[in-house]
Amino acid sequence: MNATIETILNHKSIRKFKEKKLTDQQIETLVKSAQAASTSSYIQAYSIIGVKDEQKKEQLAEIAGGQSYVANNGHFFVFCADLYRHEKIGEWESGDVIPSIESTEKFMVALIDAALAAQNAAVAAESMGLGICYIGGIRNDLYAVSELLNLPERVVPLFGLAVGYPDKETDVKPRLPYRHVYHEDSYQSQEVEMKKELDEYNEIVSSYYKERTNGKRSDSWTGQMAKMLTNRHRMYMKEFVEGKGFNKR
Amino acid sequence: MNATIETILNHKSIRKFKEKKLTDQQIETLVKSAQAASTSSYIQAYSIIGVKDEQKKEQLAEIAGGQSYVANNGHFFVFCADLYRHEKIGEWESGDVIPSIESTEKFMVALIDAALAAQNAAVAAESMGLGICYIGGIRNDLYAVSELLNLPERVVPLFGLAVGYPDKETDVKPRLPYRHVYHEDSYQSQEVEMKKELDEYNEIVSSYYKERTNGKRSDSWTGQMAKMLTNRHRMYMKEFVEGKGFNKR
């Protein structure tokens, strides 16, 4: 196993960082790593906002539900789907790009582009001995995030990425069984088989939590999922992204 | 610069592979690398289909617009947004998960999860000396792809990933100017500044193409974008993803 794969397999989210800030050169390395990712038809449909302003970081932490590591870290990035510059290009080159820009296809392209870029930054950071945590919590209120970061139309903030020097290590969290996620030639959707695999996985996840909480937390994966998904979360999202000019047709 | 960052910055899409197939162990390393990526609230909302069947690969190549490297490679993956197992979990645990599963928020989560996973697989592959190419072309006809791979409801194929031993090297393609993609504390959307940056970028991109085609191709980035976006491409996507039970509310 080479060092890169070791880094990748050793990933765990870090939720407590030392006070030390990233240097501008480290930030540049991470952003350039992000930019090196593949991009659909060269579209590069994303932007990255780095937040240094402490007050803005505090506000983002509050939006994310009071996650202190959104404010306290080495650097905080917000990855955004971005077709704003593409709209401008349409104006400059007199092309009717709006129906395309507003399509669900291009919404998907922008999300995938941004996520590929972010994961490059995440892996690059971890290879440098830094820790990372994705922050979906900023999606609690994207109206507020957009105002805070001065985002124009055609830009949708997707998630944050907190990066910094780890102050508290965590453990690698067990993933779904290999055969449950990876199918060959044809999707295997037999319910009995699926249930059996998930029952086994539940035991692994339960042990993981029990071991780490002195037996206090006994949570299964399916139980966690059912609970989370029963909760109707961020149901304003459709309206928000359409309002920003994405995912409309 | 460490080896991981070197791998990341050296990325280029490979469109011609040697005939040699990946071993099952290599495939497993790539899938496990994919699974190690961060996942929103532990949801793991994706599946990966590995295609070995030569006939299916030929059909996928045709769907992708006749891209031969979809059929001829070391291995071909299809990454899918997947909330099928989560729907089943709702049934088993008697939770009303459907409104949540059908939300735009969870559509975004599934796309981002799948893309983070894919990029881990891509970086892992490149660290092993393999080449990769993302294949958005499968989105030309996701009805056909879904049938071919036997995908149930709540599963949307997003893109392919061709992996293999490079037979023809390409060059690293120049990315958008750093300051155009990376903003600090506030999005910089001054049109004059943007135009200036893109004019400079156009010159870099034009030189890149000219050098590689003996002066035959003189294409600017903004010209390419305007042309691509004027073309209304894959406008069936909204209907397709809604039909699969995503992005509905």
UniProtKB/TrEMBL annotation, chains A, B:
Q: Which Gene3D superfamilies match?
A: NADH Oxidase
Short name of one Pfam family: Nitroreductase
Q: Give a yes or no for keyword Flavoprotein in this entry.
A: yes
Record's keyword terms, sorted: Flavoprotein, FMN, NADP, Oxidoreductase
Nitroreductase domain: which residues? Answer: 9-165
The UniProt family comment states: Belongs to the flavin oxidoreductase frp family.
What is the name of the protein in this document? Oxygen-insensitive NADPH nitroreductase
